[in-house]
TrEMBL record:
Residues 74-103 are annotated as: Disordered. This is 3-oxoacyl-reductase. The keyword Cell inner membrane does not apply. One of its GO terms (molecular function) is DNA-binding transcription factor activity, RNA polymerase II-specific. Gene3D superfamilies: Zn(2)-C6 fungal-type DNA-binding domain. InterPro entries: EcdB-like_regulator, Zn2-C6_fun-type_DNA-bd_sf, Zn2Cys6_DnaBD. It comes from Fusarium mexicanum. Residues 74-90 have a biased composition (Polar residues).
């Protein structure tokens, strides 16, 4: 049953028409109540009025129903695969969690706001926070003043000139037109080949946009033409060329270790003058030339290249440029999705690109105030998640590993997309400017308690039903557990042991899932902190004081958990694994 259709209910307190007109208590007997039977008249009951719910609540309920359909489908599939042959027919269902909803037309479309206020800026505007900043500002004269909390990301570009204003672009965009390849060309070409493999080991596992065989094919094609003069080899399209350059830049950055999180505040290495670091800077300049040239190209490779450019800039610490490329990618995806939605088949490559771009832009929007989002969210109900089945390969250890990796990628993208969509719904229900009128009503606290309970229950249900292999490391075949019994790590997944599904996820992907869990806990319960701050004079006598304080503690617990995941636990990770290994034996706590 869809949540947008409420069942008609008759209650005893609902009097028939005759009793209501006489203002007489009605016993609601069927087919006639006592009064109508004694008077020998028709007894007519009118259906109770349907509850009125606002638009955003309708969207929330509809999306909860869609996700519950997926969860129930996944549960029935898991039970059917572990049952004997004479089990129920559910064992023959398609194991794809989204199979029940791909053909459904959404009842509601997302309302895209024209403006958005980031979480940090929202808190920054509180009068209490401004007062604290003014008090500290009197003591610290050298601290820069910011108009909002996220201005720090853009302040540097305002004070200093961008490199494009102080230097000229390179004369050539070709990869091998570089002094790096003057000596030991064959060895350095082999090094590029190794860097591509490194990219898929270190980068693609977190942002699984590409397939290794496709990238290697592009590399071999233009190497054959540019280095060995093989004119019979097909020319590489410019979007593909730019894509490969950004892949190599990301691989070089990962290889240098400059993008890694370290316990040391000042890394001891300094590779700014190393040949590979100079090569990375040169290749990024070449990539920018091509990215500008293909900026209006709506091909899959052009969008993939701009998406990786955003990831590269983010890993380099350039937040403003990272958002520029992320927004450009989302705009491309929105245009491509409009065409893809009309097609019967949507390629798995575009599915990956769409959902990674969707997650990436939404994560940006949650941190930085942005006007006029790309519009990519309009198609979130029309673009399916990546397929859960890989291509059929001959039976071999390599093909088995590739199939397992493809399935893991599909589950990884689907899980993070579902969580991100839910967090977007929370923001639209609780933080939308159109809903601010509720804060001025006397029953706002009661409404907030009720809606937060529903949201938190739904958020917890998502994590309770996560497949176990997303929460465990490849070296482990046992569920991770934590001391906190309320943590989703202590809850067993119904899909924990689906036969043929890989067991194990990358350590950092596990930490990201944990981080999103605590971020959701914080976002859902933060309005209670704001309620206290804005009503501090009357809060002591408020009838919902205890319940509001309890929810406020949940908000602070979410903040603490988030900081612990990305501060304490990452430090433990690098204390024991400076080489970036995947052993999670020293990382304890919730595996959400």
């Amino acid at each position: 049953m869809s949540y947008n259709q409420f069942p008609n209910r008759r209650r005893v307190i609902q009097a028939c028409v005759n009793c209501r007109m006489r203002k007489t208590r009605c016993d609601a007997a069927q087919p006639r109540c006592g009064l109508c039977a004694s008077q020998n008249v028709d007894c007519v009951y009118r259906d109770a009025k349907q509850p009125k719910i606002d638009y955003n609540t309708q969207v929330l309920l509809e999306r909860m129903q869609l996700l519950e359909d997926r969860i129930l489908s996944s549960n029935s599939t898991s039970q059917g695969q572990t049952a004997p042959p004479q089990a129920s027919p559910t064992s023959h269902h398609d194991p794809q969690p989204d199979s029940t909803t791909e053909g459904r037309e959404p009842v509601f479309e997302v309302q895209i706001p024209l403006s958005h206020t980031a979480n940090a800026n929202h808190v920054f505007s509180w009068s209490l926070v401004q007062k604290l900043l003014e008090e500290n500002g009197a003591d610290e004269q050298n601290l820069p003043s910011y108009a909002d909390a996220t201005e720090v990301f853009f302040q540097e570009q305002q004070d200093s000139k961008h490199p494009s204003t102080t230097s000229q672009p390179l004369s050539s965009w070709k990869l091998y037109d570089s002094s790096y390849f003057t000596l030991f060309r064959d060895d350095r070409i082999a090094r590029l080949h190794d860097l591509i493999h490194l990219y898929f080991t270190k980068v693609n596992i977190f942002f699984p946009l590409l397939l290794k065989r496709d990238v290697l094919n592009i590399f071999e094609m233009f190497t054959a033409r540019e280095v060995y003069g093989n004119d019979e080899t097909s020319m590489v399209d410019m979007p593909q060329y730019g894509l490969l350059l950004v892949v190599i830049c990301l691989a070089l950055l990962s290889s240098s270790g400059q993008s890694d999180i370290s316990v040391e505040k000042s890394p001891s290495f300094n590779s700014s003058n190393s040949p590979e670091d100079q090569l990375r800077s040169e290749l990024w300049s070449k990539a920018r030339l091509i990215l500008g040239y293909v900026s209006t190209d709506m091909s899959l490779e052009a969008a993939q290249a701009s998406m990786l450019a955003s990831i590269y800039m983010g890993a380099s610490g350039a937040v403003a440029e990272a958002f520029h490329w992320a927004h450009a990618t989302a705009v491309k995806c929105e245009t491509m999705a409009r065409l893809q939605a009309k097609s019967d088949t949507i390629s798995d490559g575009f599915r990956r690109l769409y959902w990674i771009s969707f997650i990436y832009e939404c994560d940006f929007i949650s941190e930085i105030s942005i006007v006029s989002p790309s519009g990519i969210a309009r198609y979130e109900d029309k673009i399916p998640y990546p397929a859960f089945t890989a291509e059929i390969h001959p039976i071999s250890p390599e093909s088995s590993e590739a199939r397992s990796q493809e399935e893991l990628v599909a589950f990884q993208i689907t899980t993070n997309s579902a969580i991100r969509r839910f967090l977007n719904t929370v923001n639209s229900v609780v933080y939308d400017d159109k809903e601010q009128f509720r804060t001025r009503r006397s029953n706002y606290a009661s409404w907030l308690l009720r809606i937060s309970e529903d949201l938190w229950s739904h958020h917890s249900a998502i994590y309770r039903n996560l497949p176990e292999f997303l929460l465990s490391n490849p070296s482990q075949d046992v569920p991770m557990t934590g001391a906190d019994t309320s943590s989703p790590a202590s809850l067993q997944s119904p899909t924990a042991r689906i036969q043929g599904i890989p067991v194990g996820n990358n350590s950092w992907n596990i930490l990201r899932l944990k981080g999103r869990y605590y971020a959701g806990q914080y976002i859902i319960h933060r309005p209670f902190i704001e309620f206290i701050v804005l009503n501090i004079d009357n809060f002591e006598s408020h009838p919902c004081k205890d319940a509001v304080l309890k929810r406020s503690k949940s908000c602070l617990d979410g903040c603490t958990g988030f900081i612990k995941v990305f501060d304490v636990q990452t430090h433990l990770y690098y204390d024991y694994h400076p080489d970036g290994g995947d052993d999670l034996s020293d990382i304890q706590g919730s595996a959400a």
